[in-house]
Description:
By secondary structure, the chain is an alpha/beta fold. It has two domains: 130 residues, Rossmann fold; 257 residues, TIM Barrel (Alpha-Beta Barrel). 41% of the residues lie in helices and 21% in strands. It contains 15 helices and 15 strands. Helix 12 links the parallel strand 11 and strand 12. Helix 9 runs parallel beside helix 10 and helix 10 runs parallel beside helix 11. The protein is globular and about 70 Å long.
Amino acid sequence: MVDNSNVKVMLIDDDSFMLKLLTRLLETLGFKSISPHARCRAALDVLATSAAAPDLILLDLNMPDMDGIEFVRHLVDSRYAGSLVLVSGEDERTLQAAGRLVQAHKIELLGHLQKPVSPEALAGLLTTWTRPASSGARAAKDAYVADALRTAIGNGEFINYYQPKVAVASGRVVGVETLVRWQHPVDGLVLPDQFVGIAEATGLIEDLTRVVLHDALEQSRAWRNAGLTLRVAINVSMDNLTSLSFADFVANSTAESGVPPFSIVLEVTESRLLTDLRVPLEVLTRLRLKRFRLSIDDFGTGHSSLAQLRDMPFDELKIDRGFVHGAHGHRTLRAIFESNLNLARQLDMEVVAEGVEDREDWDFLQRARCDLAQGYFIARPMPAAELVGWIESWETRLREESLVRS
C-alpha cells in the first residue's frame, strides 16, 4: 500500500474554493505534501525549478492563462513521469478526448473527476494508485535494437504466456490468447510493446511469429493430451501476411503438431495501413479454407476498420478494451460497444470483449449478452503451467461470487 504521507501532489485550479476543498480531501486521505496553484504557468515554473517533480497532478482543464491540454503538452516536454488526474465540469466526450490525448502522450492517466468533486470519487481513484515506473526505466526499455532481438530469438529467450477467454453466459473457459514475453537475461520479463514494433520495423517479425506459433502449438497439444480442449489464439502481424508462404507454414506446422486447425485462432492486428491487400487477402482466405479461425483484433482502433470486415473473411471480432472498460457508466462508450456487438451479430461473427477490469464490466457484458470476455478481472496472462490451477480457482469464483446468472 502506498504511504500517502510521502507522495507529492500538485493541484492546479483557478477556483480558490476548489483548491481548498481538494486540499482538505487529500489531507483526510493521508496526503501531507500538497502544492496548490491557481495558474498553470506558476505550476510550470515550480516544475522547472523543483528538484523533485510531483508524483501526482490534479489538473483543471479550464484555466484562464493556459488550458489543461496545453499544460499537458508542457508536461511531455519536461518528461513528466508521474500520474495525472483530470478535473473538469466539461461533458463526458470532452473528458474522454482529453484522456485519450494524455494517454497518447504516454503519461499515466489515473482517471478524471467531474466537478463538483465528491470525497468518494476522489478516494476511489486514489486508493488503487501506485507510483509509475521511473522515466529512466522506460528509457532503458526503449533501447532494444534489432541485433538484440535477433540474438534473443536464436537463444530461445522468448516464452509464451496465456490469458484465458471465458464464455460470458456460462463462465466456461473456452480458450486462451497467446502473449509472448522476452525473458531478458538482464532486464527480466519484457512485455511485447517493448519489442514487437521493433521486430516489425526490422523484418524480424516473421522469425518471432514462427517461434510463438511453434511453442503455442506444442502447448495446445499438451493440453489436449491432458484432456483440456481449448481454442488457442495467436497474434499475427499484417507483416506476416505479406508473405504468400505464410499460410502453408501455419498449415504444415499445425498438421505436424496434431492439433486440429479449427482449434487455432489467428488474431490479426493491422498496425500500419497496407495499400496492396492482394497478398494478405489471399493468405487469410486460404487459412480460412483450411478451417483456421480468424479474428480481427483491437477493432475500432488503428487501421482495424469496417473495410477489413468487408474485405477479409474474419469470423471473430475483438472489441478493444478502450470501448469495454467503463462502458457501463459512459454513454458514448456504451453506444460504440453496442453498435459493434450488433454489427458482429449481423455478420454471424463471435464477439470477444477485451479489457474486462472489474465486476461492473463483467455484469455489463452479461446484460449485453456478449459472447466471450478476457481481462484482468478474469485473469492476467500466466505461464502455461499455472492454467489448470487457475481454472479450478475460477470455477470456485463463479460459484462464490455468483458471476453467472442462474
